[in-house]
Every structure is written in structure tokens, then in C-alpha cells.
Design a protein that fits this description.
By secondary structure, the chain is α+β, with helices and mostly antiparallel strands. Among the domains are: 36 residues; 78 residues, Gyrase A, domain 2 (2-Layer Sandwich). 61% of the residues lie in helices and 19% in strands. Strands 1-2-4-3 form a 4-stranded antiparallel sheet, with helices on one face. Strand 3 and strand 4 form a beta hairpin. The radius of gyration is 50 Å and the shape is rod-shaped. This is PilN domain-containing protein. Pfam families: PilN (PF05137). InterPro entries: Extracell_DNA_Util/SecSys_Comp (IPR052534), PilN (IPR007813).
């Protein structure tokens, strides 16, 4: 004869509940293990990184490294100063090159006004003033040169600043002619 178990249905449901609880516990244990392992690995990495930071800080605070760092800072400061100086000089150079009051045309125009009896000692251009110093065999040649300079388009005004016979070789006149150049600001 066979025994009939009227509670078998309830026992199967209990076994299924126990099986599902076992799966949940196993999953929770697995997640917990992953969290603990991750915590251990990250703690070890933090500890080793802190040790590396301490090691690097010790190396950086060494006297020879500090000396090299100070020297590098001084060199960087000098580089900054020189860069500013270079940029200022570049600006100044471009401004000066734009003025261009001494050109080949100006020198050729002046050369065309020189009589044969005149020779130069000095030619100086300062801002918009041209100063010509030289010697001549006659006063007329100096006057002719002044007249020729006044005719030039680039010369606004020309005058003989000095004419002296005593300061030169006998029979020659030393002179100083000043001219104002047009178009120079």
C-alpha cells in the first residue's frame, strides 16, 4: 500500500523557497566578496600611491634639487625679461624703419647739389635736421650748394650756419649748412 502525503504540495513550496533563498544568499555573498576585494585592492593602491608621493616629495626637497629649481626660476625670469626687451626692441625697430628719413633718393638728391669745389667732412641727420659740414675752395661754391639744396623737394629750408676761413687749410673755407627735411614727423 501506498502512503498518501497530503502535505507534499506545501513541502515543495518550502523547498523552492529554500532554494531561492540559497541563491539570494550566494549572490549577496558574491557581491559582498567583490566589495571586500575591491576595498582591499583600492586601499593597497592608495597606500602605495601615498608612499610614492612621500618619496617624490623627499626627492624634491633635497638641497641639490632645490638649488636647481631656484636656478631654473632665475633663468625663466631672465627669459621673461629678455622676451619683453625683445618685443620692445622689435616695436622700436619697426617704428624707426617706418620713419625712413634717410633713403637712397635723399642721398642722391644731396649728391646732385654738390659743386665741384666742395667736399664733405661730416653728414649728420638728426630727426628732421640735416647737418652738412665740409670745406670749399670758395664762398660762392658754398652759396651755390645752399641754393641747390633749397630747390630740392625734400628740403623745406636750408641755411649756412657757419662759414669760416680761419679753421681750415689756407685758401679753403670750412662751412656748416643746416637743412630741415620735409615730411618727417
Amino acid at each position: 500500500m501506498r502512503d498518501i502525503n497530503f502535505f507534499s504540495k506545501y513541502q515543495r513550496q518550502n523547498n523552492q523557497k529554500k532554494d531561492s533563498l540559497i541563491y539570494v544568499y550566494k549572490l549577496a555573498a558574491l557581491v559582498g566578496a567583490i566589495i571586500v576585494i575591491s576595498l582591499g585592492v583600492n586601499t593597497f593602491r592608495i597606500f602605495s600611491l601615498n608612499k610614492s608621493i612621500e618619496s617624490y616629495n623627499e626627492k624634491l626637497n633635497a638641497p641639490d634639487i632645490q638649488e636647481k629649481l631656484n636656478e631654473a626660476e632665475k633663468i625663466n625670469f631672465k627669459i621673461d625679461v629678455l622676451s619683453k626687451y625683445d618685443s620692445t626692441l622689435s616695436e622700436l625697430s619697426s617704428v624707426i624703419s617706418k620713419r625712413d628719413n634717410v633713403s637712397d633718393k635723399l642721398l642722391n638728391d644731396i649728391r646732385s647739389t654738390i659743386p665741384t669745389d666742395v667736399s664733405f667732412k661730416n653728414l649728420e641727420i638728426n630727426n628732421d635736421v640735416l647737418t652738412l659740414q665740409g670745406v670749399s675752395k670758395s664762398r660762392e661754391a658754398v652759396g651755390e650748394m645752399q641754393h641747390n639744396l633749397k630747390k630740392l623737394d625734400v628740403i623745406r629750408e636750408a641755411f649756412v650756419n657757419s662759414l669760416d676761413i680761419g679753421g681750415s687749410v689756407e685758401g679753403e673755407y670750412s662751412f656748416d649748412i643746416k637743412c630741415v627735411i620735409r615730411g618727417v614727423n
